[in-house]
Design brief:
The chain is mostly helical and about 130 residues long. It has four helices and no strands. Helix 2 packs antiparallel against helix 3. The radius of gyration is 20 Å and the shape is elongated.
Length: about 130
């Protein structure tokens, strides 16, 4: 058993404690009982899993990371009491408003200073 500790301070899946202890190692886990904290931790996991998904280089890696992200999103939708019907309506409205990716358009630049994306720095106009 090691005396070293690695601090994660993040939400983990239910089986992690057992996996660590099966290896003869110890860990400290606490249950997140506050709903607001649980929601925030799930949102952090969405970012973590989406970042990992963005780094995949093979179909099998994609499937594994996609599954990781979907498990977190399923937990988040359950916590927020969002139904599958709610999600389908939101997707339909989103596609109607923003479109799809069928044409594979890559935007280099735009003179439309009102266009905003998730990556657009606030207050910068070229």
């Amino acid at each position: 058993m090691s005396d070293k500790k690695v601090f994660y301070n993040k939400l983990v899946r239910d089986g992690i404690k057992d996996k660590i202890e099966t290896k003869g190692e110890s860990c400290e886990i606490r249950e997140v009982t506050d709903d607001a904290e649980y929601q925030q931790e799930l949102l952090k996991k969405v970012s973590e899993e989406a970042t990992a998904l963005g780094m995949v280089r093979s179909r099998s890696e994609f499937l594994d990371e996609y599954a990781d992200l979907m498990v977190v999103l399923d937990a988040l939708t359950a916590q927020l009491e969002v139904s599958e019907a709610d999600i389908q309506i939101a997707i339909k409205e989103n596609v109607e408003r923003k479109g799809l990716y069928k044409n594979r358009h890559f935007l280099h630049w735009s003179a439309d200073t009102d266009y905003k994306s998730n990556e657009t720095p606030q207050g910068i106009n070229g």
